[in-house]
Amino acid sequence: MSVPLTAFLVHLRQPAGGAHTADTAALDWFVIATQCCFFFLLGCFAAVAWGIWRRTTRPEPHEKLLQELAEADEDEILRAGESGPDASRAPWERQADWWRRE
Question: What whole-number distance in Å separates Cα of residue 45 and Cα of residue 37?
Answer without folding.
Answer: 12
